[in-house]
Design a protein that fits this description.
Strand content: 25-35%
Structural class: alpha+beta
Distance between the termini: 55 Å
Radius of gyration: 15 Å
CATH architecture: 2-Layer Sandwich
Shape: elongated
Number of strands: 5
Largest sheet: 5 strands, mixed
CATH superfamily: Hypothetical protein apc22750. Chain B
Order of helices and strands: HHEEHEEE
Number of domains: 1
Length: 100
Amino acid sequence: MRRVLSCAVLAMASCVTVPLSGRAQSVLVTDAAHVTSCKPLGQVSGSSGTGGILSYVGLKEAKAKALDAAGALAATHIVWLEPTAGGDVQIASGLAYRCE
């Protein structure tokens, strides 16, 4: 029974969408090869307290916050760094760039 419940929770979590702010929606996710001629704006990060079996949702929330932080810097692109997961805290970090 417990296994069935865990699978049901994971299935629901995979359908969860995290709304992005307007400025977060304007930031494109890319890789380092595509931002070589862009202006680096710095590292941004976001965190979420959603962890455990819902860590996937927590990572989505953390990425949404990092994208919003990049948008606040007027970034056009972000290159993700490795996410950090620690128990109930998920942290997403990336390098923000402004490309003309």
